[in-house]
Amino acid sequence: MKNNMKIFLALALATVLILVSAVNATDSTDNSIDNIISEETSTPVSSVIKEETPIKEKIETNNSKRITKTIKTKENTKSATKTLTVNDYQELISTSTSIDADSENNDYIINLNEGTYKITIKNNYFTVQKDITILIEGNNQDLTASAMNRILYYNTTGNTTINYANIHHQTRNNGNLIINNTVISNLTVIQNNNNLIINNSVLTNFTGIGFINNGETIITNSMLNCIINNTGTITIKNCTYGENYIYDGTGTLISDYNEENNKIIENENITTPLTIISNKNYEIINSNITAKISNFGNLTLVNCTLSNNTMLINNAGIFNTFLLENNGNMTILDCVIENNTFNLTSTTIDCNGAIIYNKNNATLVLNNTRVNNNTHIGIQTPFIYNLGVISCFNNCIFTNNNMQCYVNKPYHLSDNLDEFTLNITNSLFENNTFKIKTFTVGLRATNSSVLNATNLTVKNSRFTNNKHIFLEPGVGGGGEEPSGIAISATNLNIDNCTFEDNGLISKHEYTGSGGGSGGTGGAIRATNLVVNNSRFTNNVANTTSGWDSILGNGGAISVVNGEIYNSIFEENKASRKGADIYSTGNLIIQNNTFTNSYATNTASSIYLNAYKPDLTQFNIIITNNTFNNCKSSSDTIVIEQEGREINKLIENNIYTNDRINDELILNIPENIYIGETITITGQYTINNPQCYDTDILEQNKFNVYLGDELVDTIDNLEFTITPADANMILTVQPTISQTRQTVMIHASTLNFTLEDITATIGETTQLTAQITVTTDDTEIEVNTGRVYFKVNGKILRDAETGRIIYADVTENTATLDHKVPKTWNIDTEVTAVFTGNDDLPQKTSNTVNPTITTPETSETEFTVADTTATAGSEVTITVTTKNLGNGKVVLKVNGKTVKADDGKLYAKVTADMTSFTYMVPKTYKAGDYTITAVYTSGAARLEADAKLSVE
User: 321, 385 in Cβ contact below 8 A?
Assistant: First the structure.
């Protein structure tokens, strides 16, 4: 063993011994969860560890055998402790790089300040390749991740300790790690690949496969309420166990937990048949079983292997199982059944359960058992055939089993018949394959399913990639295609399960006729079904047998009477009807989500056949569901009732971009011009409204696209657009439907321009507007319509009648002679307006500021005279305004405005002289003050200055 391994194990043993001493010091020690978390009974990392001290510890295991363990330690003097603080995970992980590069310090303390410790990338590494000690003080911080697949790896050569933390993310230890006083919960997995010690901690509420030990682990004084998968060595001391504690694995377990048993067989190879008589209690532990066991009493298998057997039977008749036949009570715990080949070469043999035959009202429990990579060739031969009172599978795994069958008999991983009940919890069914081989007589296997039962309850389990694939030709005959590839049952309850990538794929090319029927239900087929809180993803029912009427229906579920609540359906497919659900009876569907389903033929999501002759009453409730992007050749929901009366409630459902049998019509104007707004209207009709909510149109809106760009979402089919190009693609789509109506918008170019204006005040000038129309690069002459003109926003009117003055358009031109008033200047704004007609819209021209030419006049003069006065006296200030005409004069003395004689802030110009009376303030001291006069008239402005002398 490497030196660092010795140091770590020495530290581990020291911790365990101190903890055990603390616990045994008094008989009143409280081992509750609260006590585990609050008491600091673990030993901190020591600075000095004694060298080569052999320690022997005796630990009682559950099989009453003693194990003596010797651990050696090594002296390693530590010095130069350095303390670091971090505020988030990025900083924590970064410290490992700086520590690894530090050559001066041997011990580190890392304090986790209060902050947000969330892992946001998939793989994170705390790597220190030096033989040093690192203490991470968690300070009760919550260590989380943004997703379940975010992992933190501890790759440390020395010893790393974590104290007082709350870890809620995946963790992998590839070095030497100690965890003290910590809650570890809500994980998919915590995995040890080297050396790990857990003291005074809680492992609980794991969402996945739990704690995986591939190295050496010691757990003391802790609460275990999770799955433990062990392939290495694990020691459990002074621990308490929650209701969710499950131990699984092929590794070494050293534990002080013990149960009494009547008879124990341990570490044996059972190669000859074994019979357990009535009222006897047997426990078989850590054994390899290759011969048949017949149980009439109480049998428990713990951590046994029933694997790597090749069994060949070629005689005729009925053969009852190869491995386990149960007539009493049998529990299979932490066992492995894998890599077996069961071969019935004769086509006349029936085998009642290749692995397990549970009969005569016996009870069967499978817990933490794996059934993997088994192959069976034969007829009517499920791996597990149950005729017991109650059968329970808990935390089991059924994966990669390959089944081949020759004739039309039931064939399943588990077959549960008659009134008996099967309960499944927390189990996985993955990559199991059915291949049905037919003969020339056209016999076919019936209902090839992972699970088949009369009464079946499945909770918290997953069915992934279970498939029936048949791609061979055959002859039409009796029997039935496989249906319900994951589950086929009479009475079925599903809660919190996942069905993904299951399916029936069959490409028969049958000829002739027969009374058979095609397969339905890519995941589930049931007579009476209740589903809660489950997910169905990418399941498929795809058969092409042309002689059958119901093949390829129900990509996820085929059911007679069903209740489906709070579940998610996505990406399911059917080669015919009902990509998600196919039903022929009473149906309740509430609070579900249906997304991206696809049916080649009818009903992209739900198909209900409500006219079957053997049913007398139909009740249909489809409420509070969401349908999004469901596709088929016709409606998302189809109810085939053919005039039959049914009780139906369909309401409060939400539809988005679904296939709906509808019709959309758009009304486009004939004359369209670039830059000119047009109004588009239309009509929208749903052809099968009886299949949907009565108020479905109230939730509908319309998306408007120009090209590929969504430009608007409108409530009603009346909207405006303004074409920017001569040719544009307009598309309108109802928000509830996948129906799209696309039209090409052909727009002409309409230009209306007012020419530049040169005007002389008091003289007549000509206002000229030009209008051009271009369609498909061809200019069209305009000789109709009228134009009026606006000056500073006011329409030019006849001075006597007040009527608008119009100019007719001739040869694309409209002109008007207008006498220019004195009010015009360079800031005057003139526009023209084309009034429009049946062919052309109204259009306003550009705005023109005229060029003004002023006629010759006498020379103007604007001055203000100097004035002398005394403080407090009244003085007249005179402003010369010669030849200035109408305007205003503002006078200021020392920056303050002087009011005119009428009290206004300005004086109107009426003559060549304008005067102001000014009262000189008494506060003015002797000196000169500035007089400023400003003249304004329209845009014209003049300014003059003078001097006020105060004596």
Answer: yes
| H or E element, residue 7 | helix 3-24
CA 538 to chain centre: 16
- Sort 392 into a burial class: Cβ within 10 Å, 0-12 / 13-18 / 19+: middle
Integer Cα distance of 866 and 885 in angstroms: 24
For residue 234, which of 249, 261, 254, 262 has the smallest C-alpha distance? Answer: 254
Q: Which residues pair with residue 364 across a beta bridge?
A: 330, 391
CB-CB contact of 579 with 572 (8 Å): yes
Q: Which two tokens stand for residue 168?
A: 């809620």
Is residue 78 pLDDT above 70, yes or no?
Answer: no
Q: Which amino acid is at 191?
A: Q
Give me 882's structure tokens: 């010669």
Give the number of C-alpha atoms closer than 13 A to the C-alpha of residue 733, restricted to the C-beta side: 20
**Structural contact between residues 573 and 542, judged by C-beta atoms closer than 8 angstroms:** yes
**For residues 217 and 488, what is the distance between their CA atoms, to the nearest angstrom?**
43
Sheet holding 861-864, edge to edge: 861-864, 874-882, 913-919
pLDDT 10s digits, 801-828: 999 999 999 999 999 999 999 889 999 9
- pTM of the model as a whole: 0.59
Nearest to 428 by CA among 390, 456, 457, 460: 460
338-374: pLDDT as tens digits: 998 887 765 555 667 778 888 777 888 999 999 999 8
Cβ–Cβ < 8 Å for 864, 945 = yes
Report how far residue 8's alpha carbon sits from residue 174's, in angstroms, rounded to the nearest whole number: 13
Residues facing 511 on adjacent strands: 475
Closest CA to 213 of 192, 227, 196: 192
Which residue do the tokens 């140091």 mark? 7
